[in-house]
Amino acid sequence: MVTLSSSPEADRAFPLSAAGAAIMRRPSLWIAIVVLCAVGVTALLGARGPLVDVTRVARTDLEQHLIASGRVRVVTRVQLNAQVGGRLIDVAVREGQRVRPGDVLARIDDREAQAAVAEARAAVAQARARVEQLHEVNAVVAGERLREADANVARAELERARIEVLAKAGAVAPRDVEDAQRTLEVAAAAQNAARAQQQGAAAQGADARVAAGALRESEARLAAAEARLVQTRVVAAQAGVILGRDVDPGDIVRAGDTLLELAGDGETELVIEPDERNLAWLGVGQTGRASADAYPDQTFPAEITYIAPAVDRRRGSIEVRLRAPDPPATLRPDMTISVDLTVASKARVLAVETEAIGGAATTTPWVLVVKDGAIERRSVTLGIVGEERAEITSGVSEGDLVARSSRQPLEPGQRVRVRVAP
C-alpha cells in the first residue's frame, strides 16, 4: 500500500489547488482517474483499428524463375557384354578410369579360338594351292592331252581310209576294216575326254569353279574363326569413363553377361522433372543456371533442348532435358543437380509482395487493400511471379496500400492503422 502525506514545507514547495489537494488526500480517487484515462486511450486506439504492416503497389522489373532438381544424364551409357563364353584371364580397367577407343578392357581365354584360326588358315592355304594347281599344271596337262588326242584321231582316220582302199582291192580282209573303225572310235572318245578335261581346267571351267568355291568357303571359315577370336577381347569403341565393373579375372562368363558399364564422352545433359503445372512456362531454348548439390557454389549455364511429349501420369511431372555446354570438372554421371530457369521477364509492371496475395495458387487470388483507413478485399489477376513480388494485371492501381500478410485476421470494412514498409 502506498501512503501519501502532506507537510507545510511540501505544500509551500508545490502549491496544489483545492481539488488537487483533495485528490492527493484520497488515493483511490486518483487511481480511478488513471484507469479511466487508460481505458479512454485504449478505446480511442480500438476505434482507429489495429496496426497493420502494408506495402505499396509499385512498378518494377520482374523475372519469374522455375527451380527444379534433377540429375546429370549420361547421354551414352554402354553395357559391355561378353560375346563368347569362357574364363576371364584379364580385366584391365577399374571403376572411374578413363579409356580411349581401341583400348582392350578385358580378355577371355582364347586358346581354343587361336587353334580354330590356325586350322582355318591351313584350309585356306590348301584351297588356294588347289586353285593354283589348276591354273598352272592341270590346264597345261589338259592342253597337251587334247593335242595328243587330236593327233591320234587324225592317224586313226588315215589308217581307216587306207584299210578301206585295200579292202576294195581285196588286199585285206573285211575284219581289218572293222578293226580300223574301232580304233578311230576309241581315238575320238579319247579326244572328247581330253577336250572336256581341257575345258574344265580352263579359267571358267567346272574344275576351276569348284576349286574357287572351295577357296571362298575356306576363307569364310577363316573370317568366322578370326571374328570369334576378336570376340574374346572386350574393346572400348569410344572414349569415356568406366562406371561399373562386375567381374574379376578368373570368373567364368557366358555370352551376353555384362562385364563393364561405360559412360561415353559427349555433351553433358541434365534431366529435371518439374510439376506439369509449370508446362505453360517452359520452352525449348530457355536458359538458366545449374549447380551440383555437392558443389552449390559452382554454377554453370544450361539450356532446354527437349521437353517430353507426354506427362508422367503417376507423378504428374514432365521430363525436361538441358544442354550444359561448359560444365565444371567436378560434375559426374547421375549426380544430383539443381536448375534455376528464367521462364519469363517483364519490365515496369505493377507488382506487390507475394506474401500479400491470398489464394495465389488458386484461380481466384485476392489482396487486402487499405483505403481511407478501412480494409477492402479485392480480387486480382496475376501475371508472372518472381521470388519476392508478383505482377498484378488487374484489381489494384499504382500506389495502393496492401496488407503485407494475407493471413492477418482482418475483415472487409475493418478500421486499421497502417505502417508502410520501407
Provide an overview of this structure.
The protein is built from 6 helices and 21 strands. Helix content is 35%, strand content 32%. Strands 2-11-14-13-12-15 form a 6-stranded antiparallel barrel. Strands 17-16-20-1-21 form a 5-stranded mixed sheet, with no helix packed on it. Strands 3-10-8-5 form a 4-stranded antiparallel sheet, with no helix packed on it. Helix 4 (111-169) packs antiparallel against helix 5 (174-201) and helix 4 (111-169) packs antiparallel against helix 6 (206-230). The chain folds into 5 domains: 8-47; 51-64 and 346-420, Beta Barrel (conserved putative lor/sdh protein from methanococcus maripaludis s2 fold), CATH 2.40.420.20; 66-74 and 266-345, Elongation Factor Tu (Ef-tu), domain 3 (Beta Barrel); 80-108 and 234-264, RNA polymerase II/Efflux pump adaptor protein, barrel-sandwich hybrid domain (OB fold (Dihydrolipoamide Acetyltransferase, E2P), Beta Barrel), CATH 2.40.50.100; 112-230. It has helices at 8-13, 18-25, 27-48, 111-169, 174-201, 206-230, and strands spanning 51-56, 58-73, 77-81, 86-91, 98-99, 104-108, 233-235, 240-245, 252-253, 258-264, 268-272, 287-292, 295-307, 320-324, 336-353, 366-371, 374-379, 381-385, 389-394, 401-403, 417-420. Strand 12 (287-292) and strand 13 form a beta hairpin. With 422 residues, the chain is α+β, with helices and mostly antiparallel strands.
